[in-house]
Design a protein that fits this description.
heterodimer, A: alpha/beta, Rossmann fold, 13 strands, globular, B: alpha+beta, seven-stranded mixed sheet, 20 strands, 56% helix
């Protein structure tokens, strides 16, 4: 291979890239922009991690996740977290069968492939704890019976960063359970215009003699572009991605520097390093590579690291931000 | 075979034993003699279930269980209705003993009128019988049922038996037969009949004895009915026989008449008329006795059951019609008899009407009312009615109208009343009132008490009145009233009319004048009494229920706060319009004018004080004053009108209503008990009251003044209900303004002298913060302070008015609330003071800010020995227009304690004159002016943005920007795009300790500068920041280094053209390495001739631009990661300008490095190779 030529990915990586590309294409038909978010969703899916999306309402989070689920033919459920929820509302509970008089297990919405946990910070800590435990262990215990969650099992949680009243902020230890925390931004001017244009052409949906205006949800195609087998193959391709020594070394260095920084109260756990490498592998596959490059690390560092560090009060008072500290650490790496 | 035999033989033996055991029915467990004896004791026990027994059993339940005494245990089970256990106990006993005990229980229970058993208990007891129920037991069970189930509540007994128990009820024929016998024994004959077969099916009963019993019952039933009929007829016939005979004594005849009367309504209908006709023909005296018998029965049953009395009325009607048809009703004794009959009917009608209405006394009577419909069915008509003498006929018509009213048939009742009023106007009037009361009651949305209690509704539960209902009610009432007016029936008690009108409305709905006119006729023609009742009712409703949001919610009106506010406003306007309209053409209308004054005062208070809508407070004050001025005008007119009215009055008819109401409104005392404590002493208004009284003719003036003085003095000296502390002084001072030296208020003079003495040591004052000549539109300050003696400073504790101290508020809350609270609540004394200041100054000035001294404020010495000044507040204001020539007197309520308790004395300042001029005046005095100029270049490399933030603080008011800095010179260096003044002048604190009392003020401006020319230029530009206009002003220039502010050495700043690098920090002049300065010096020395530049740059700052070669350097530790990262940053940096070929080359290098170093199959580059790559690109960017 010529050192100047573009590397040709192996077949597994290529098909995985095509699979992800097809999903992205399907999502793009419904959701305008948010390509990075789709990529993050796919990274989480390919690595078996969980994703926390932080952004304002109305940024098509639900639509996006719904579309991804349909595109891969995955079971999808959505939970709107509220303050009065109980753990049993999520994981399920034992209910008595009126006919037989016996207890039977009623499975909660957590039994799905793709779970959208909307506004997770609205739920009481007890409920958050139950949810995060299920995410971590991938099994739940109902009425003394331990039950495995379906595979794949991916949680995409959302939280609104501007509302504090009536919310319970996720503690750092629980945030750590999320492989990625992606901060959603507003669409740019052209994207926003395209959203409006799309809406104009949607027309009405007729139902039983009545009609309602179509929404973007009506645009989601029922057919899938991939199957669970394709997903598993892509996951396998991720596992085959090469991570060089030097990348690992810098990855460790990045994590260690967050712990050593005097501007931070605490840095990342080893889980951050694992998440960063895994996510970087998935990103490499999505980009059609079978090896990880520094760019993968730089691109994902913010989503992997930022929610795992806490800036100290003094440095915050001095005007530093977590993002700036991370940037300075990354700059110092190379 | 053997095995089979043995199995069969064992089974047989078991069966045989079982049968034997069943035949013997021995106790399941053998009882010892002791236990048997205990059970036998029960035969002597009296089985009762009184409350005491029950509670005793509950208390000893456990003990009885544990004690082991069988009799006690049994009794406990019996009393606690544990019938299952009772059955178990019976099962233990020998059958005979069990039966005896069971019978004892039944006998004991049947003997008591109140057995305290429930239906379920009796049925369970029947089920608990050891063995089968005997005839006697069946009878006893029936008797007990008869005792506990009221005859008129057999339905639930029927329901329960329908469901069936172990031994009774249900569908089993045998059990049904038993049930019939039980019911028969209990007196439930009707119910019993349903459980027994019809006579035709008697053959189906196998048990002969039982069949005979049922047959006998059915026969007896039939026999009873026919016997009853026969007996009634026999009594009637016998009575008729006795009455028909001539040789029977009077006593016998009377007895016969009475007996006939008793059965009259039960005999065959066809028999009465011929019998009575025969009696009339042959024996008129006997006919009279029959009628007398009925009337006697009526009298005897006067307090009886409704059904009986209704039957009597019907019997009376039958006889009256017979009498009317067959006799001359004008002859004696028939005329007297039919009149008596009519009287009886009338008494029942009155009773029904009274019971239907709200007549509490009538309702407390035990006699229940006959239904109005039944009454009207038995009403005298035809000849009977025509025969009544006129006076009785009128009374009868009145009663008839009431009966009709009781039946809620108002249209017919109105016709009757009008008809009657033609003959008997007084009766018509009385009935019209009754009509209105009934109408009001029938339309009253307030739920009757019994219904409210029945459904557990709150006390104020009302039936909501919808707009449609309202219109319908109004139409109905208007129609009736029009009929009455047409018939010239005017009610005596107009309160009833107004009540009737009031109930047509929902609680939450203000009256509309259109409705008033519809019901009562044109307002100018309203009767005085009706008019005042209406306007007073409106007035009290406006002050109370119509403005309450909870009533609006309870009435389901869905009105918002604003809509409620608008409705009340419209209500006040309507009320005033009504008064104005009614007064037209009337000269003597002091009462109405006074009421108008009160209404306007209250309206003003409402609009000013209510918090329903957030309107401009200053506008509210103006509206409030305007309403009060109009109120004063009305009061003045009322006093003048009274002055004319008095000419017709005798001294005993003198009233001070106008003056006292006027006085109270001036003080803020509303008739509904609310007090507006924000009102100050209105000496001008009080003087008008005095002048009005003194203007009265002759001795009337002094008489009225004395009367007023006496009344006011009595109020002031009332110890049971003392005046509110905030009101005390004002009431006192106001009284003396009106009465002056009146002998009845002489005692008050001493009190007010004491208060005035206190005030003589306190002077509230206002002064301007500089010259009194002020330019129009110029802001200036008013200093509010108290000048006082040193001693008074200690006593008065002025600091208490400068905080909303919770302790002060709490203490205030604990005081006895003699009068209602202030209309608008405040948080504490400082809020009250601020409110007072705002409301006083608002009509003249735009009040920008009011700043208060701290509660710990120290008094300042004054030129007068022994006197001090305590500064309270500083108000930053701007005059509204050129006509403002003074600071109005302001008021502070000082709190003291005298012998009668706490008292609030208002201290008032004198007016302070000011002069407004059109020419601009110098800025207000300010000292210690400090200006901070912050030059911000952080956005300059990005978008060319330059800003200059100017913050100025001063003792006194910070002058305008043009007065502070020389902007003209500054503009020559750089263009100012925009000046943002932010919030304008801000007062930070009040400085009361310096030489001059002044607030510490602050202003902030942001100047947006045009940096584009500097950016476009090739050379750095020097900018001179604006200099101060006065040498007394201290200027501090500064700039940013990253997020930190650093001082600038001088006002001159050099700004260099830099590439727009987002986020690139600019170095601060003078802070770069001194080497730069050294280089500069060398250059200066070398060039010599540029000495001028050197000198001018002595205080010049320089901002160098970052360069790519400074930014991108060989990594400290060279590895593939660091090199790739560097190349990527380099490619993305705006500091580096690569052509297309170079960009492609760079991408290839990155790809090559990545593939080689990070790809699994590649050959990693050595450090030397990596260094070469880096060197290559660092050379390119140089």
């Amino acid at each position: 291979m010529s050192p100047h030529s573009h590397p040709v990915p192996p077949a597994a990586t290529k098909s995985a890239q095509e699979f992800v590309g097809a999903v992205r294409e399907r999502v793009a038909k419904v959701v305008v922009g948010q390509d990075v978010v789709v990529e993050r969703v796919m990274i989480a899916m390919l690595t078996g991690g969980h994703l926390l999306l932080q952004g304002m309402p109305g940024l098509a989070k639900t639509l996006l996740v719904n579309t991804v689920a349909k595109a891969i033919n995955l079971d999808f459920k959505r939970i709107q977290f509220t303050v009065d929820m109980l753990p049993s509302d999520i994981i399920g509970s034992e209910v008595i069968d009126q006919k037989t008089g016996d207890f039977r297990i009623h499975k909660g919405p957590v039994f799905t492939n793709l779970l959208l946990a909307d506004e997770i910070n609205r739920a009481a800590p007890k409920v958050q704890g139950a949810m995060l435990e299920a995410m971590q262990e991938r099994k739940v215990t109902i009425g003394g019976q331990s039950m495995k969650l379906p595979t794949p099992f991916l949680v995409i949680a959302t939280q609104n960063p501007v509302e504090n009243s009536g919310t319970f902020e996720l503690p750092e230890a629980q945030l750590d359970r999320f492989m990625l925390l992606h901060r959603l931004g507003y669409p740019d001017r052209d994207e926003e215009q395209l959203i409006l244009q799309r809406q104009l052409g949607m027309g009405l949906r007729h139902e039983g003699g009545g009609a309602v205006p179509r929404s973007a949800f009506d645009m989601i195609e029922d057919s899938s572009v991939g199957t669970l087998t394709d997903l598993v193959a892509a996951m396998e391709a991720v596992q085959a991605v090469h991570v060089s020594e030097v990348i690992l070394k810098h990855c460790v260095e990045l994590v260690r520097r967050t712990r050593e920084s005097k501007l931070l109260d605490f840095g990342c756990s080893p889980r951050a390093g694992l998440a960063l490498v895994n996510a970087a592998r998935a990103r490499a596959v999505i980009r059609g590579r079978d090896f990880v490059t520094p760019e993968d690390l730089f691109d994902l560092a913010e989503d992997v690291v930022l929610h795992r560090i806490r800036i100290s009060y003094e440095s915050s008072a001095a005007g530093h931000t977590g993002k700036a500290v991370l940037e300075s650490i990354l700059t110092g790496l190379g | 075979m053997k095995k089979t035999f043995s199995r069969w033989s064992l089974g047989f033996l078991a069966l045989a034993w079982g049968l034997l055991a069943g035949a013997q029915t021995p106790p399941t467990e053998a009882l010892d003699a002791k236990e048997l004896k205990q059970y036998e004791k029960l035969l002597n026990h009296k089985f009762t279930r009184d409350h005491n027994d029950l509670f005793s059993a509950l208390e000893h339940a456990n003990k009885a269980e544990q004690a082991g005494a069988a009799d006690l245990r049994f009794i406990s089970y019996f009393r606690l209705s544990e019938w299952g256990k009772v059955r178990s106990e019976f099962a233990k006993l020998p059958p005979e003993l069990a039966r005896r005990i069971y019978d004892k229980i039944l006998n004991d229970l049947a003997d008591r009128q109140k057995s305290n058993l429930r239906l379920e208990d009796v049925l369970a007891l029947a089920d608990a019988v050891p063995g089968e129920l005997t005839d006697d037991e069946l009878r006893k069970v029936g008797e007990i049922l008869g005792l506990i189930v009221p005859a008129n509540e057999t339905y639930w007994l029927a329901d329960r038996l329908r469901a069936g128990t172990e031994r009774l009820g249900g569908t089993d024929p045998a059990k049904r037969l038993l049930t019939g016998r039980v019911l028969l024994a209990g007196g439930f004959r009707e119910l019993a009949r349903t459980y027994w077969p019809a006579a035709s099916k008697l053959e189906e009963i196998k048990d002969e004895g039982l069949r005979n019993e049922v047959a006998a019952f059915l026969a007896a039933e039939q026999a009873n009915e026919s016997v009853q009929r026969e007996q009634v007829q026999k009594v009637w016939d016998e009575g008729l026989r006795v009455l028909s005979q001539t040789k029977v004594n009077d006593w016998e005849k009377t007895k016969a008449g009475n007996a006939m009367a008793r059965v009259m309504m039960q005999v065959a209908p066809g028999t009465i008329a011929p019998a009575f006709a025969a009696l009339l023909k042959d024996n008129p005296d006997s006919a009279v006795r029959l009628v007398s018998g009925i009337e006697r029965k009526i009298q005897n049953d006067a307090h009886g059951e409704v059904a009986q009395r209704t039957e009597n009325l019907r019997a009376q009607l039958t006889l009256a019609n017979l009498i009317a048809a067959q006799t001359d009703l004008k002859t004696s004794p028939w005329s007297q008899l039919v009149q008596l009959m009519a009287e009886y009917w009338m008494s029942e009608a009155e009773n029904t009407y009274a019971m239907k209405g709200n007549n509490v006394r009538a309702r407390s009577r035990s006699v229940r009312a006959i239904d109005a419909e039944d009454l009207l069915d038995a009403v005298p008509t035809g000849k009977w009615l025509d025969s009544l003498p006129p006076d009785l006929r009128d009374r009868f018509d009145a009663s008839l109208a009431k009966a009709i009213l009781a039946s809620a048939n108002f249209e017919i009742a109105a016709d009757r009343i009008i008809d009657l009023s033609k003959r008997h106007p007084q009766t018509g009037v009385a009935l019209a009132e009754d009509f209105l009361a009934s109408w009001a009651q029938a339309h009253n949305p307030q739920l009757p008490e019994e219904m409210r209690k029945k459904f557990g509704l709150p006390e104020d539960a009302r039936i909501p009145i919808t707009p449609i209902m309202l219109e319908r009610n109004i139409d109905s009432l208007a129609r009736m009233m029009a009929l009455f007016r047409e018939a010239k029936i005017a009610p005596r008690d107009y309160a009833k009319v107004v009540n009737a009108f009031d109930v047509t409305y929902s609680n939450a709905e203000a009256y509309r004048d259109t409705h008033i006119e519809k019901v009562f006729g044109p307002i100018p023609q309203l009767d005085e009494e009706v008019f005042f009742l209406l306007v007073n009712r409106m007035h009290s409703n406006l002050a109370d229920r119509w403005r309450k949001m909870d009533i609006q919610r309870a009435s389901l009106t869905r009105r918002t706060e604003f809509e409620t506010y608008e409705m009340v406003r419209e209500g006040y306007a309507t009320n005033l319009r009504m008064i104005d309209s009614w007064m037209m053409g009337k000269t003597e209308a002091s009462r109405a004018l006074t009421l108008a004054g009160v209404l306007l005062t209250e309206w003003g208070d409402f609009e000013s004080m209510q918090e329903l809508v957030a309107t401009d407070p200053q506008k509210r004050v103006v509206t409030y004053k305007e309403k009060n001025l109009r109120a004063q005008d009305y009061f003045q007119r009322a006093a003048e009108a009274y002055g004319r009215e008095i000419l017709k009055l005798s001294p005993s008819e003198y009233t001070i209503e106008v003056y006292i109401t006027w006085f109270q409104c001036l003080l803020g005392l509303g008739p509904s008990g609310q007090v507006n404590l924000n009102k100050t002493i209105n000496r001008a208004g009080l003087a008008k009251i005095r002048a009005s009284i003194l203007a009265l003719p002759g001795k009337a003036a002094s008489a009225h003044m004395n009367l007023l003085a006496k009344t006011l003095n009595a109020r002031l000296t009332d110890e049971n209900y003392p005046l509110h502390e905030d009101l005390k002084y004002r009431y006192l001072a106001s009284t003396l303004v009106v009465t002056k030296d009146d002998p009845f208020t002489m005692g008050l003079q001493k009190k007010v002298a004491y208060f005035d003495e206190l005030l003589s040591e306190i002077r509230l004052q206002t002064r301007i913060d500089g010259p009194n000549t002020i330019g129009i539109g110029q802001e200036f300050g008013i200093v509010i302070s108290v000048v006082h003696t040193e001693a008074m400073g200690r006593v008065a504790r002025f600091g208490q008015y400068l905080s909303n101290d919770p302790a002060v508020i709490a203490a205030k809350g604990k005081r006895r609330a003699t009068i209602n609270k202030k209309v608008r609540e405040t948080q504490g004394p400082r809020d009250e003071f601020e409110q007072s200041l705002t409301e006083t100054l608002a009509p003249f000035f735009d009040v920008k800010t009011i700043i208060f001294s701290t509660p710990e404020v120290k008094a300042r010495p004054t030129a007068r020995i022994g006197w001090e000044e305590t500064v309270l507040a500083y108000a930053l204001v701007r005059a509204k227009d050129a006509s403002v020539d003074k600071v109005p007197p302001i008021q502070l309520e000082l709190k003291f304690i005298d012998l009668s308790g706490p008292v609030t004395i208002p201290a008032t300042s004198a007016e302070t004159l000011i002069k407004m001029v059109a020419t601009p005046m110098p800025a207000r005095p300010a000292s210690k002016v400090e200006i901070t100029e912050t030059f911000d270049t952080r956005q300059f490399p990005i978008n060319g943005g330059l800003t200059l933030e100017i913050k100025a603080t001063a003792n006194g008011l910070v002058p305008e920007l043009d007065d502070l800095l020389d902007l003209a010179a500054f503009k020559q260096g750089v263009e100012i795009r925009q000046i943002s003044p932010h919030e304008g002048l801000q007062l930070k604190e009040l400085n009361t300790w310096g030489e001059v009392v002044a607030p510490r003020s602050e202003r902030l401006w942001t100047l947006t500068l045009n940096g584009d020319p500097i950016r476009a230029a090739d050379r750095p530009a020097d900018i001179s920041l604006p200099a101060a206009k006065s040498k007394d002003f201290l200027v501090q220039p500064q700039t940013y280094k990253d997020l930190d502010l650093v001082p600038l050495p001088g006002l001159s700043v050099r700004v260099d053209r830099v590439a727009a690098v987002p986020g690139a920090a600019l170095s601060v002049p003078g802070l770069r390495p001194m080497g730069w300065l050294g280089v500069g010096v060398v250059i200066v020395v070398g060039l010599g001739g540029l000495l001028y530049l050197l000198l001018s740059a002595r205080r010049t700052a320089e901002i160098p631009a970052p360069r790519a070669r400074d930014v991108f350097k060989m990594p400290t530790e060279v590895d593939a990661f660091a090199v790739v990262a560097l190349l990527r940053r380099l490619g993305a940096s705006s500091l580096v300008r690569l052509n297309a070929t170079q960009q492609t080359d760079l991408s290839s290098d990155v790809e090559r490095l990545q593939q080689a170093c990070f790809g699994g199959s590649g050959q990693p580059l050595s450090e030397a190779e990596l260094r070469r790559v880096v060197d290559k690109w660092l050379r390119v960017i140089r």
